[in-house]
Design brief:
This protein has helices spanning 10-20, 71-79, 92-97, 108-112, 200-206, and strands at residues 24-25, 27-32, 38-43, 46-51, 54-60, 81-86, 116-117, 126-127, 132-144, 149-161, 166-167, 171-172, 180-182, 187-189. The protein is an alpha+beta fold. The strands form 4 sheets. The chain has a 7-stranded antiparallel sheet with strand order 3-2-6-9-10-5-4, with helices on one face. A 3-stranded antiparallel sheet has the order 1-13-14, with no helix packed on it. The relative contact order is 0.18.
């Protein structure tokens, strides 16, 4: 199948992107409005883009109506600050709930039942139980296309790393984190690791094998087929 994206609408292109770029790291972004209302949102268009200074990027689409700017974007634009928290298996459901489109005057930490922790440099609170959080100052915003999509770059001004996963030599014990990533419209648990080459017999055992499910849904299920899904990264 060869597909020309210029013949597709934004939703169709979005489906192909999120099903092709796997797994995607989740930037669980906390922000705060100018009036002090805290917001949380999982952003799976997220990556590192610089080293010295350390810089990360998040890409934000509008709300599910396709027009209204998300609170995450508005808060970063207006305050110049945000925090990226790591999503892990014990926090996965709370992270998923933070994808729902709350009203702008709702403190999402309170609505979801998550405890805040103070940051050091920025005013934005962190997710207390997240093993890793990155305090960020806005570097730049780049509009993408004409659909209210934006790429936000932020300089990491403080790393918060839980003591038990910070190892000698400045390395993070990734095997202890139970990190959660994003597939198309589902999540995946990072629960194995390898280096190459692998034994041919082991490789053969994986050929044609489908990923297992942890949630009891039938093989092939996807939230994309449900009315709750939207091509904005938000859950309706």
């Amino acid at each position: 199948m060869i597909i020309d994206p210029s013949n597709l609408d934004a939703t169709s292109n979005y489906k192909l992107l999120i099903g092709s770029i796997l797994p995607r790291a989740i930037g669980w972004v906390s922000t705060q409005s100018k009036s002090g209302i805290a917001n949380l949102a999982p952003i799976s268009f997220f990556t590192a883009v610089g080293r010295k200074p350390p810089v990360v990027s998040i890409s934000l689409q509008p709300r599910s109506d396709g027009v209204t700017l998300k609170d995450t974007f508005v808060n970063i634009r207006d305050t110049g600050e945000f925090v990226v928290n790591m999503a892990t298996l014990p926090l996965a459901h709370a992270m998923h709930r933070s994808a729902f489109e709350f009203e702008s005057d709702v403190d999402e930490f309170t609505a979801i039942g998550l405890e805040k922790a103070d940051s050091v440099i920025v005013k934005v609170p962190r997710v207390k139980d997240a093993p890793i959080s990155l305090e960020c100052k806005l570097d730049r915003i780049i509009p993408m296309g004409g659909m209210n999509d934006h790429v936000v770059f932020g300089e990491v001004v403080r790393f918060h790393i839980r003591d038990d996963v910070y190892m000698d030599g400045g390395r993070i014990d990734t095997g202890a984190l139970q990190a959660v990533g994003r597939l198309a419209a589902e999540y995946t648990l990072v629960h194995n690791a390898f280096t190459t080459p692998l034994d041919e017999e082991l490789l053969s055992s994986f050929r044609g094998k489908r990923a297992g499910r942890l949630d009891g849904h039938a093989d092939g299920y996807s939230p994309i087929d449900s009315k709750e899904w939207s091509a904005s990264g938000a859950t309706r």
